[in-house]
């Protein structure tokens, strides 16, 4: 393969609540992630917003205890040759309840130490400000992002971080996978993204209405944070972060082609606002046509226009295929009926399609639409790994997945002219799964000895993919 440009940010990605543990250390407050139990046997994770209940399994409380192992872990990333490490700052370490006026020094100090450790090895920290880990207090007291006051709380948090880590962190992202909320039939993603909890019996309309409002406040908060970040340090590069799942038509029928177009709009309007500073026409038309009337003021519109992002960060795991259904005349819903299997693609053990060419397509689509640098901040294969009797972990399936995706990424850069800043595969060290709350859905190059029941020594070991990725980075992507 052809090499990537010099300075390409090879690395890996994680999120605070999925690996740090130390959920009550250093003055940390309780986040929504801390009250989520693990799912089991196909059952979704549950949320216990009134507090932790004895006897239930809360995997994020210890996670892989990066809080105490970060030196060892960053050393292993350095051994692989990482140029960048994406993690998030747990909001509750800095503002334990989210609405205080003064930050928690011990929390700020923890990230001073983590970033210093990265720089010791020439690793660039890439930081998400909000990755599914908002303070629980903001959920219980304000109803999460339904409440406009959260804008100020978030901007205060972001501003404290920009000031404290000035000259230390250059690459930032505001909200992780903000567009996940389009799946408003799944209460779990509402809770993780926006802290929106719903009473039993709530309808799709209730959830959609709250979601549009919460999303708007998040977009305004993001724009104000971007503006503040640029003022504090003009060298800051501040991006958005979306879950990019391309929607392909199931057939060449015009209805399916248009369904795919509408399904793409349904996912991408968040990044349209982040990048362009205004709502796309199809969303304005949708609000007019439907009963949704989010509170959007003129001052909000001015804020959106003044805080556009510098780059587009995105996760890519799989593609989806959609077919139009006759009972969806306005093409408004992309639900279980519209999403259909793609007979040309294999799937993972968790049913996610494996579509490397979809990554090249995504890079082309995003670059054409936004003409902004892109950053792949998540990609990877969740799989169950076996530890052999000699302690080694052979994971050729993970290497195959990553090799195929990197090859397509390189074509997008070298043949299609896409401006790509870096590649940070997800869960570079095994961690708690966001979707299931379990350990055994593993993504890492580094194995962590801990099982779904929370048992294990937490010892780290290098998988085969560790050495493979090390070689990829050494050759700047030439040798896959
Ligand atoms: C993304 C999230 C991550 C992550 C990943 C894999 O949606 O940003 O936090 O966990 O998906 O998902 P899962 O952990 O469910 O396999």
Automatic annotation (TrEMBL):
GO terms for molecular function: 6-phospho-beta-glucosidase activity. Its EC number is 3.2.1.86. Keywords: Glycosidase, Hydrolase. Pfam families: Glyco_hydro_1. SUPFAM superfamilies: (Trans)glycosidases. Belongs to the glycosyl hydrolase 1 family. This is 6-phospho-beta-glucosidase. The lineage of its organism: Bacteria, Bacillati, Bacillota, Bacilli, Lactobacillales.
């Amino acid at each position: 393969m052809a090499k990537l440009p010099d300075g390409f940010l090879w690395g890996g990605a994680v999120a605070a609540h999925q690996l740090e543990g130390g959920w009550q250390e250093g003055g940390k407050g309780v986040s929504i992630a801390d009250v989520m139990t693990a799912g089991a046997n196909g059952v979704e994770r549950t949320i216990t917003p009134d507090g932790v209940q004895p006897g239930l399994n809360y995997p994020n409380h210890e996670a892989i205890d990066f809080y105490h192992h970060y030196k060892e872990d960053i050393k292993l990333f350095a051994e692989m040759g990482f140029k960048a490490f994406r993690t998030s700052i747990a909001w509750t370490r800095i503002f334990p309840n989210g609405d205080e006026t003064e930050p928690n020094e011990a929390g700020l100090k923890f990230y001073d130490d983590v970033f210093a450790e990265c720089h010791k090895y020439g690793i660039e920290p890439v930081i998400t400000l909000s990755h599914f880990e908002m303070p629980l207090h903001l959920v219980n007291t304000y109803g999460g992002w339904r409440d406009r006051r959260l804008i100020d709380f978030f901007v205060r948090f972001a501003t404290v971080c920009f000031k404290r880590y000035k000259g230390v962190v250059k690459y930032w992202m505001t909200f992780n996978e903000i567009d996940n909320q389009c799946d408003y039939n799944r209460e779990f993603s509402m809770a993780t993204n926006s802290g929106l909890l719903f009473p039993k019996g709530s309808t799709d309309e209730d959830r959609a209405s709250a979601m549009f409002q919460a999303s708007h406040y998040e977009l305004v908060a993001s724009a104000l944070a971007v503006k503040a970040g640029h003022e504090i340090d003009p060298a800051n590069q501040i991006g958005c972060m979306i879950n990019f799942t391309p929607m392909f038509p199931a057939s060449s029928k015009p209805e399916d082609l248009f369904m795919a177009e509408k399904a793409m709009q349904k996912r991408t309007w968040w990044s349209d606002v982040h990048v362009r500073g205004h709502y796309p026409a199809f969303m304005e038309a949708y609000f007019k046509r439907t009963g949704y009337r989010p509170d959007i003021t003129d001052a909000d519109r001015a804020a959106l226009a003044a805080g556009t992002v510098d780059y587009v960060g995105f996760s890519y795991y799989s593609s989806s295929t959609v077919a139009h259904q006759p009972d969806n005349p306005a093409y408004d819903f992309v639900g279980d009926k519209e999403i259909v299997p793609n007979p040309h693609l294999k799937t993972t053990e968790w049913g996610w399609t494996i579509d490397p060419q979809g990554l090249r397509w995504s890079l082309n689509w995003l670059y054409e639409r936004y003409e902004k640098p892109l950053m792949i901040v998540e990609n990877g294969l969740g799989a169950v790994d076996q530890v052999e009797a000699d302690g080694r972990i052979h994971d050729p399936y993970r290497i195959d997945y990553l090799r195929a995706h990197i090859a397509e990424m390189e074509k997008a850069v070298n043949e299609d002219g896409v401006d790509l800043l870096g590649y940070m595969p997800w869960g570079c060290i095994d961690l708690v799964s966001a979707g299931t709350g379990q350990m055994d859905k593993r993504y890492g190059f580094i194995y962590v000895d801990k099982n779904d029941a929370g048992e294990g020594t937490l010892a780290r070991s290098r998988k085969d993919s560790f050495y493979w990725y090390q070689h990829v980075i050494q050759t700047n992507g030439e040798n896959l």
